[in-house]
Write a structure and sequence with these properties.
The structure is a homodimer. Chain A has helices at about 10-25, 65-85, 105-120, 170-180, 185-195, 205-210, 220-235, 260-265, 280-285, and strands at about 40, 45-55, 90-100, 125-130, 135-145, 160-165, 215-220, 235-240, 270-275, 295-300, 305-310, 310. In chain A, the strands form two sheets. A seven-stranded mixed β-sheet of chain A has the order 7-9-6-10-8-11-12, with helices on both faces. Chain A is about 35% helix and about 25% strand. Chain A folds into two domains: about 10-145, PurM-like, N-terminal domain (60s Ribosomal Protein L30, Chain: A), CATH 3.30.1330; about 160-310, Phosphoribosyl-aminoimidazole Synthetase, Chain A, domain 2.
Chain lengths: ~325, ~325
């Protein structure tokens, strides 16, 4: 008797590849996508290349998320990286490691999420690889195009304004809510959960921030990403805690962590953190108004040392860091 | 007291990133490598893109290999894919998932192996990502250049000669020897182990096979890769078992698996399997002589059905397939 709920081990790598080829199929004339040793794609004279890996039990957990969420997010985090360089995401390859015990339905949902994100952000999935594993992990590599000069993290200048898009802390608050089974309690908590599970990279905001002197996406928490940007630029900063845009939905987390702390140290918000010449700030603040995510000035670039309300922004627990023994 | 043998959890993601940046550092003028949200690299009008993931316990095991081996091989398998398309490997990004308990020395050895392969095959490591995990896995994405037309797997034509470079079965024989602790017994077994641990992609051979009508690298076993090539080309084949070039070192595996079976079904040899117009075969056979790996004609492309000595080349166990429940 055929099992009603098949798992990956039953259809094998070939079965899975057929399933993937049917979805992502062939490219346009002159390109080769899924199915050969490598994909062949058109590129401009310069390309952006980035990779992010999500691991089950570390970066996601099926106790609170779906295959769709994993597919969506695995692409979103890379799209955010390309946007933060001032580029345009174009092509992706996906390496998927799976236990044979994974349900085929979970893989289908993963592909659904990947495909939905690819459609939303105009990315073509052009190839990939599959391996067996004990735990699921997904590594997406994204190739992007860039027309203007890239916005590096090393370009901050003394006196530049430090600005951040949207609001912070929501993704970390969402994780808190999901891990405690709070999702569904009310609309605010749903919004937080969505920020964790279905993040929206700030592509359009990045386009309007081409004048930034430096830019990164906030993936490991404001404090850590800000410190890294300043280190790369050889500068310091002074930032006001009360200026940091805290996700308003965090107020719904009664007995939860301090919202401002989540905004400072929680990761995965995929907001853009940038430095702008003071002469460009007003224009940027206006340009990023509705329907975009908005922009908030939170501090200024200094010669040396990162200060939050006059205190050094340093210490062991700046934000999300992989691998540190916990 | 400081531990004498530090593990990754002690230096954390930041410590590891510093260690990686010191090695792979900055690119030439106009490029951005390790350290920003994405790498910026020069590209031609067309690029090749491929990814391969290696997972601890499935694709490698530290009971018989070193970190150096894993670094080398994770790049080699991708270089082989680019070569099999008729391209030139150029830039790589590396996603590394690691347990915090991994020794820093293992990571250093991994980076040594990666760097050695990168040097050998003229690849620049331009970026990457690190995540925590229970098991180690490495996903390398390789961007390649291509000047001429790509050699696809779909181009085989009726009457073409089927040829394969070098010899087959050695990598599978090496795995057999390593898993049984036979490495070091004699020079032949050392050669087999090296084919498993330090494979040599056939870059120069691929350059001389630009006239091939179709080409793939033999990564999952001759039988499976041949069947896939013919399926992609909409053709069949007839192949002679006695023509298949068996790695001569396999004779050293007394009481081991049948060498011809290993040559047919063992994976990871990274030889090139191609189809050639009969008019081009003699030139190719001559061009691939010493110091290259050599080329052997093993059969001919037919209209339909893959036959080995007249018997259908089909069935459950064609070669290495991930995910099939074992």
């Amino acid at each position: 008797m055929e099992p009603i709920v098949p798992h990956v081990g039953e259809i094998g790598e070939s079965g899975l590849l057929d399933l993937i080829k049917r979805r992502f199929g062939n490219g346009p004339e002159g390109e080769v996508w899924v199915g050969d040793d490598a994909a062949l794609v058109a590129t401009g004279s310069r390309s952006l290349l980035t990779v992010d890996v999500l691991v089950e039990g570390i970066d996601f957990d099926f106790s609170y998320c779906t295959g769709f969420d994993v597919g969506w997010k695995s692409l979103a985090v890379n799209v955010s990286d390309i946007a933060a360089m001032g580029g345009r995401p174009e092509r992706a390859v996906v390496a998927l490691s799976l236990s044979p015990a994974t349900l085929v339905g979970v893989v289908e949902a993963f592909l659904d999420g990947l495909e939905a994100g690819a459609g939303r952000w105009n990315v073509d999935i052009v190839g990939g690889d599959i391996s067996g594993a004990d735990e699921m992990s997904v590594s997406v590599t994204l190739l992007g195009a860039i027309d203007a000069e890239p916005v590096l993290r090393s370009g901050a200048r003394l006196g530049d304004a430090i600005c951040v898009t949207g609001s912070l802390g929501g993704a970390a608050g969402g994780l808190f809510a999901l891990q405690r089974g709070l999702a569904g309690h009310n609309a605010d908590i749903e919004r937080l959960a969505a920020r964790q599970l279905r993040p929206e990279p700030r592509i359009r905001e990045a386009e309007t921030l081409q004048a930034a002197t430096a830019m990164v996406d906030v993936s490991d928490g404001l404090a850590l990403d800000l410190t890294r940007l300043m280190k790369a630029s050889g500068k310091g900063c002074t930032v006001s805690r009360e200026l940091v845009p805290v996700d308003p939905a965090l107020a719904a987390l009664e007995d939860g962590p301090d919202p401002v702390e989540l905004a400072l140290r929680g990761g995965e918000d995929l907001e853009l953190l940038c430095t702008l010449d003071p002469a460009d700030v007003d224009r940027a603040l206006e340009a990023l108004g509705s329907p975009l995510a908005g922009l908030t000035r939170i501090g200024v670039v200094t010669d040396d040392g990162c200060l939050l309300d006059g205190e050094p922004l340093e210490g062991e627990e700046l934000g999300w860091e992989h691998l540190r023994s916990r």
